[in-house]
Each structure stands twice: as structure tokens, then as C-alpha cells.
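Example record used in the benchmark description.
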Amino acid sequence: MSLFFALLFYAAAVIFIAGLGIKIVDYVRTPAPLKIPTTPAPISAGGVWLRMLREAMLFESLFKSNLWLWAFGILFHGALLLVLIRHLRYFTEPVWFWVGWAQPFGLYAGFAMLAGLAGLWGRRFLVERVRYISTPSDHLMLALLAGIGLSGLGMKFIAHTDIVAVKAFFLGLMRFDLQPLPSHPGLYVHLLLVALLLIIFPFSKLLHAPGLFFSPTRNQADDPREKRHLAPWAAELERS
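Model output (C-alpha cells):
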């Protein structure tokens, strides 16, 4: 099983990094032929950076449009961030001091993450217009994330595993030095789901994470009178 999971995570890491890189390059190359910032919009580059920061950290536009959805979304994403920070201890030696500080918060953030997921998933059943446009992939993504959270909490509070050996395994992967993985069904389930998430991430709706920064409704300044917007391909046609 150690060899299986080692090969699985190497493959998942390659697919995740390569797939994400290809998608980002595609986003960069996709022209924005029109000036379409959602108003009220900033009129300077600094204002655009500030707006993007508020969108990425606080979900500003979602707060203005749907408070309930914003609450569940910010709860899930904030808790997920803490959980990811907590998991950095498995990939660092010595553990960075700020990762150590986050350990108690990251532990209980797992419950908050599941609460946020429950709210986001529940609206896909309870809100008629959202239920109508929900696809099987939407439910599968939420089920996958919930499975990761539940299996992780299960190992902490129900069936413990050897976390020292787990850390040695992942540090070994980073150094191309295979170490034995503890024999634990809950750990196997957790790692399988995490690897699956890494593999499908570049091909799923979860790409809204990097895609936010390439949205012309958010990353454009509202300055059409001061500066003419011309896509690169249009500029080439104009010169010819």
C-alpha cells in the first residue's frame, strides 16, 4: 500500500500542477474584447488590486448579492484555509512556528468546514432555482469535500492513526525516499479522496479559485473614457 499511495500521489501532483498550469495559461491568453467591469468599479490599477483582494479574501460581491450564501461560503473557505495550514506540519521539518500556532484552530476548523459544506449543499436541495441548475458533478464535488472532512475528523476523534509515520511517509515522498505508510482503513480512504480531488481539480468547477483573478468583470478598471480598451488580437488587425 505504501508503494501504491506513493505512485498515486506522484501522479496526482503531476496532473494537478500541469493541469492547473495549462488552464491558467489558457486564461491568460483568452482576450477580453470589451470593457465590462461590474460597476461601481475602481478607475485606477491600484483600485483594481484592492477590489481583487477584497473579492479573494472577503467575497465582497457575494456579500452584497446573497448574505446566506456568503455566510456559508466564507465559513467553508476560511475553515478550509485553517485546515490546510494545519496540515503543513506533515510536510515541514522543523514545523514553522506559525503552523504550530494554527494547530488548535485548524483542528476544530474541520467541524466549521463541514458546517459550511452542509449549508452550501443544502441550498442545492432546498432552493428551487438552485436545485434546477445543479448537476451531478456539483453534488459529487460537495460529497468529495465532505468525505475528506469526515474521514479526517474520524481519524482524529474515533480511530486514531500513527501521525508520526504519516509525516515520515510524506516527507519521504518529497525526498524520493519511500517510507512505510501506517495500515489504517480510515487513512486509506482519506488519502484516496485527497488524491482524487487533486486529479479532478484542474477539470472541475473548483477552478473558480484561480479563475476569479482572470474575470474581466473584476480585473478591469472603469476607465473607458480615459483609455481605449483594445484586445491584442484587435490591435494586430488595426495595425494591418
